[in-house]
């Protein structure tokens, strides 16, 4: 069965610093992986997705993620944090029945 | 502009009352989903529908009911049998839902339900 683990429920960075949000997955088949962002009291917005075309995936708002099969990881990064990046981030894997399985989420705080 | 609408944004009900949350999409997507979100628990799937007039239970379907009479609409009823209905409810859709294909889901803005 597929599963997702997001390491760290809260991450705090200074404005301009590197953002690294960790996601590890478990999947018995080549996975489809996603990162979503959620601002307070809003729905989820797709940041990027991995579909096996390329291991380094670029998304919106300057985010990117690298698929590492050997580490079963799909960590999300951004070189320089902006105050507007403060939000909750969810990693998800598509199950072999077609449903999305979400991690517990990581809240990103950006300090001025 | 294509998208998913959920109404209302905030909903207040008394305990013991049924309440229906609306979800409409104009993306021409076949599949639609309902999730419940509670602090620190991520998203949990309530019901999903892969095609009109068909739907399946998700992980936490007890106390909820749905219908899918039209492709663009997937209303969720929170019944009085749901023991802890206060939560943030999110509707989503995807172009398909088969075993292959990425089929990313697109989300509506959510409805925050408070039951007292």
Please summarize what this structure is:
The complex is a heterodimer of chains A (112) and B (116). Chain A is mainly β.
Structural overview:
The complex is a heterodimer of chains A (112) and B (116). With 112 residues, chain A is mostly beta strands. Helices cover 0% and strands 55% of the residues of chain A. Chain A has no helices and 11 strands. Chain A has strands spanning 3-7, 10-14, 19-26, 33-38, 44-50, 56-58, 64-68, 73-78, 87-94, 100-102, 106-111. In chain A, strands 2, 4, 5, 9, 10 and 11 form a 6-stranded mixed beta sheet that branches. A 5-stranded antiparallel beta sheet of chain A has the order 1-3-8-7-6, with no helix packed on it. With 116 residues, chain B is an all-beta fold. Chain B has strands at 4-7, 10-13, 19-25, 31-37, 43-51, 54-57, 64-66, 76-78, 87-94, 106-107, 111-115. In chain B, strands 2, 4, 5, 6, 9, 10 and 11 form a 7-stranded mixed beta sheet that branches. In chain B, strands 1-3-8-7 form a 4-stranded antiparallel beta sheet, with no helix packed on it. The mean pLDDT of chain B is 92. The chains are: A mainly beta (112), B mainly beta (116). Chain A binds chain B through residues 9, 32, 34, 36, 41-46, 49, 51, 90, 94, 96-100, 102-105, and chain B through 4, 6, 31, 40-43, 45, 48, 50, 58, 88, 90, 92, 97-99, 101-110, 112.
